[in-house]
Automatic annotation (TrEMBL):
Keywords: Transferase. GO terms for molecular function: transferase activity. This is Sulfurtransferase. It holds the Pfam family Rhodanese. CDD domains: RHOD. The keyword Transferase applies. InterPro entries: GlpE_sulfurtransferase, Rhodanese-like_dom, Rhodanese-like_dom_sf.
Length: 125
């Protein structure tokens, strides 16, 4: 019985930590940013991007962002997305280090797509 309570406590603690992390890293007000023309920056690999992405999004992977960030306009607003939200946080921080002021974490691209009913595109190549 004692082991069961300990296990339940550990599971609850992990869940709470996950929810706090998700709450702190996901930016609020994304709906207003999107309505005002924010660009979705998908930071997954090109291969992942081709399997499905938000129509009109731009793809620069986490592995390429340090070399390719100059392709982005520092005056525009970007919402970073990836498959689960971890890479998007990393890219958000990298771009802020590079002087970008309007960068926001959108988390998982599929969650953002569902929340705002974006069209999904797939590359058939």
């Amino acid at each position: 019985m004692k082991n069961l309570l300990i296990l339940c406590g550990i599971i609850l603690a992990i869940y709470v930590v996950y929810r706090i992390y998700k709450y702190q890293t996901l930016d609020e007000g994304l709906d207003k940013l999107i309505k005002n023309g924010a660009i979705i920056l998908d930071v997954r690999t090109e291969k992942e991007y081709k399997t499905g992405h938000i129509a009109g999004s731009q793809n620069i992977s986490l592995g390429e962002i340090r070399e390719r960030y100059t392709e982005l306009d520092k005056n525009k607003t970007y919402i970073t997305v990836c498959s689960h939200g971890l890479r998007s946080v990393k890219v958000e921080n990298i771009l802020k280090e590079k002087g970008f002021k309007h960068i926001h974490n959108g988390g998982a691209w599929s969650d953002l797509q569902k929340s705002f009913n974006f069209q999904i595109s797939e590359d058939k190549k």
